[in-house]
Fold this protein.
Amino acid sequence: MSDCNGSDHGGCSKEVDPSPELGGSFSDILYDMKGTLVIKVKDAQTGKIVEEKEITNLIMTFTRLQMSYLFAGVFLPAAATNERYITRLQVGTNGTTETVTDPAITNPVSVTPLEVTYPTTSSVMFTGVLASGSGNGVTFREAGLLFGSPSGLATRKAFAPMEKSSLWVWEINWTLAFI
């Protein structure tokens, strides 16, 4: 950025060119974080997408706390049981609008396996599948990403009711990005 007034991020930053292997430039500000949840409902027999929802989500206060611990190198509980990273994606039944202090997913069903990819240098995507044999007969109204130990919500999003049946497989992609 050449001038602070033209910044899309509400602040002035000083860019520094890093070594080529790091791929990009550094900035003296940490950009905002954004989450995007995509739920693809697929026919269990054909794999054809029959419905797709894309929803932005709220980043929880617990995520900011976990990031501060990461920056400081704090490993509590003991390093052997430390999982201060996202380990689970869950869907649940609580349709109440999310707040930054939500503690958990209600009546959670885990979405597996949780695959992690990096679509850009400033984002991470978590992908999981709710198989045709999981969560059937339940009307889901929320989803969340959770840290391992200590456990806590990283993100949560309430959405319009979606009933799960054995006819459908849900592919869930959740991207967290610095913008």
